[in-house]
Amino acid sequence: MISHVLPTYNRAPIAFEKGEGAWAIATDGSRYLDLGSGIAVNVLGHANPDLVAALTEQAGRIWHVSNLYQIPQQERLADLLVEHTFADTVFITNSGTEAAELAIKMVRKYWHDQGQDRTEILTFEGAFHGRSTGAIAAAGSEKMVKGFGPLMPGFRQLPWGDLDALEAAITDRTAAVMIEPVQGEGGIRPLSDADLQQIRALCDKHGALLVLDEVQCGMGRTGRLFAHEYAGITPDIMMVAKGIGGGFPLGAVLATEKAAAGMVAGTHGSTYGGNPLACAVGARVMEIVADDAFLAEVNRKAALFRQKLEGLVAAHPDVFECVRGQGLMLGLKCKAAPADLVKAGYAQHLLTVPAADNTLRLLPPLNITDEEIAEAVARLDRAAASLA
Ligand SMILES: *Cc1c(COP(=O)(O)O)cnc(C)c1O
């Protein structure tokens, strides 16, 4: 008999009833050190007092207001995002998938309004942009699309990081290039600054829009507010979600005035998108994370964590190949699929997340302490040793 919850996930037999910072407390009272953060979502840890205050304060006032009216909390969040990024304008969504859908619509509308037949969006193998029909067509992975055809047309996948393939594929008919600066689900695979600069240059040469998916790598995860800042380039459109709500469902599409020009009244909408509750939390997350001192701490801790992980890899050469990633978006490339290692982590009361390309993802809350980093590495060490 089918479970009452649609069985689309292989779930571990653990349930959590409480959280405190980097710790998730299970129903049996045991404490798990959380290096998954709900997949890069809980950027400020569990039950962060500032976020609880922002949420409960707003919850006592008004939860939901239609976009038929002005929403000051939404304007505040948009102001903060514009102030700290390349963007001129922002649409607030409830998830990363919805952000991807709007990004695709925005690209199409841009070229439609230019009177040009440019609909092809170039994407990359190993990409993840969500699970809607549009987002699976964009990523094109066999695993995600099988059985869900016909696929939405207009996407072409290129080998990951293959700039020769991009140069050969991009033409004056290309609508956009859509890419994650650091692939998350694909296995914590960062693009080099030089690659990102070259992608921007190729888009400029052919007039194509550059769409960056920073749903996983954004919001301070890499040590900059957004990962593309390292390369000194800016996109035309960017998707954000996961970390921006600190655990409350929230996403956004950021765009330049030019790229967004076609999105006039009536062209897009959302019942819940930009509601006061989500935006009150999102604005508080932005105030905390977009702070230079906070980001400097993320970088300091990331260097400490990485150094310890290099030692871990050296100590278990039969389990690990290397460390990769940037900031606190780290991956341990393993010799085999990391499913057993994730399980061995559970036995050590440690939460990690598997990814493609034999990679174990480590995505701790950005405010994890030095002591917790040392404890996490000790638990990873025991988990790896238990596999031998
Ligand atoms: C998680 C993710 C998405 C989809 O976000 P949802 O909130 O799950 O819809 C899109 N792009 C990237 C890079 C992601 O990591």
UniProtKB/TrEMBL annotation:
GO terms for molecular function: transaminase activity. N(2)-acetyl-L-ornithine binds at R131, S270. Pyridoxal 5'-phosphate binds at G96, T97, F128, D213, E214, V215, Q216, T271. The keyword Amino-acid biosynthesis applies. It catalyses: N(2)-acetyl-L-ornithine + 2-oxoglutarate = N-acetyl-L-glutamate 5-semialdehyde + L-glutamate. The keyword Cytoplasm applies. Keywords: Amino-acid biosynthesis, Aminotransferase, Arginine biosynthesis, Cytoplasm, Pyridoxal phosphate, Transferase. Binds 1 pyridoxal phosphate per subunit. Pathway: Amino-acid biosynthesis; L-arginine biosynthesis; N(2)-acetyl-L-ornithine from L-glutamate: step 4/4. It comes from the Bacteria. The modification N6-(pyridoxal phosphate)lysine is found at K242. It holds the Pfam family Aminotran_3. Its EC number is 2.6.1.11. InterPro entries: AcOrn/SuccOrn_fam, Aminotrans_3, Aminotrans_3_PPA_site, Class-III_PLP-dep_AT, PyrdxlP-dep_Trfase, PyrdxlP-dep_Trfase_major, PyrdxlP-dep_Trfase_small. It is found in: Cytoplasm. Its cofactor is pyridoxal 5'-phosphate. NCBIfam families: argD (TIGR00707), PRK01278.1 (NF002325). May also have succinyldiaminopimelate aminotransferase activity, thus carrying out the corresponding step in lysine biosynthesis. Homodimer. Belongs to the class-III pyridoxal-phosphate-dependent aminotransferase family. ArgD subfamily. This is Acetylornithine aminotransferase. It comes from Paracoccus fontiphilus. The lineage of its organism: Bacteria, Pseudomonadati, Pseudomonadota, Alphaproteobacteria, Rhodobacterales.
